[in-house]
Amino acid sequence: MTQHPNEPIATNHNPLHILYQDDALLVVHKPSGLLVHRSPIDKHETEFALQYARTLNGGEHVYPIHRLDRPTSGLLIFARNPDIASRLGQDMMAHNLRKTYIAIVRGWPDDQGTVDYALRDMADDPRYRGGELKMRDAVTDFTRLATVELPVAVDRYPTSRYALVQLHPRTGRKHQLRRHMKHLRHPIIGDAKHGKSTHNHFFGKAFGVQRLLLAATEMSLDHPTTGEPMVLRAPLAQDIAHVMNSLGWHRWVNTFGVLNPH
């Protein structure tokens, strides 16, 4: 029997971890590798964060208010009724919600900067129907948090440089952070589509991590019913925290915290 993509999943193991909940919101940590909802390019998948979130919500419907790519871990917010989802959707369109991510990238970017680089719609985007792909404005702010230089010739240089960066997308284009970091020539490690395979393979062999090293760590918003400003935060998944500790970035692991699976 096929599970409907919106039905709750009856299981003793739920990969989502509740970070915050009230009458309006259900906020969870999503692991890397889990789709938020059914996608036309992953038709074979049968399990989705939407199902697991509904299970956490007592079987009642929930409504995702933003996207989180399948390989990205971290903060994911669901509204607990359609009215709340509509309000938050309007806030999202008005850019009243501020998202924060961290990523491990190849090379050393500038200390801080802004990527203002329009992105063309992707051919696998549901909006694409074989017509001309449109260019859309896309802006990302970034801050370099930490660097490391390893005495390993991963590419054509005798040593290899990597950095931990914090990313703030002002727009919400598909794969925006991944494509913007590629544009800067500092691709995110583990990005099979927009990254560099030699560095991805090195991290897999050296640290045992095969995932995209991108995590949603924070979102600032006004509560949809009270109007009070709130900041929601998500700790790091253990695998990305392991890589950061291995690279000597203990301070930042302590700053963000590490998810403690139940």
Could you tell me the radius of gyration in angstroms?
19 Å
Q: What structural category arises from helix and sheet content?
A: alpha+beta
Please report which band the strand proportion falls in: under 5%, 5-15%, 15-25%, 25-35%, 35-45% or over 45%.
25-35%
**Count of discrete structural domains:** 1
Enzyme class: isomerase
Catalytic activity: uridine(65) in tRNA = pseudouridine(65) in tRNA
Keywords: Isomerase, tRNA processing
EC number: 5.4.99.26
Key terms:
262 residues, alpha+beta, 6 helices, disordered N terminus, Pseudouridine synthase, ten-stranded mixed β-sheet, isomerase, PsdUridine_synth_RluA-like_CS, two-stranded antiparallel ribbon
Protein architecture, described:
Residues 25-183 form the Pseudouridine synthase RsuA/RluA-like domain. Its EC number is 5.4.99.26. It holds the Pfam family PseudoU_synth_2. InterPro entries: PsdUridine_synth_cat_dom_sf (IPR020103), PsdUridine_synth_RluA-like_CS (IPR006224), PsdUridine_synth_RsuA/RluA (IPR006145), RluA_PseudoU_synthase (IPR050188). It comes from Saccharospirillum mangrovi. Residues 1-6 have low confidence and may be disordered. Strands 1, 2, 3, 4, 5, 6, 9, 10, 11 and 12 form a ten-stranded mixed β-sheet that branches. Strands 7-8 form a two-stranded antiparallel sheet. With 262 residues, the protein is of the alpha+beta class. It has one domain: Pseudouridine synthase (2-Layer Sandwich), CATH 3.30.2350. The chain starts with 16 loop residues before the first strand and ends in a 6-residue tail after the last helix. The protein is globular, with a radius of gyration of 19 Å. 21% of the residues lie in helices and 28% in strands. The longest helix has 12 residues, at 82-93.
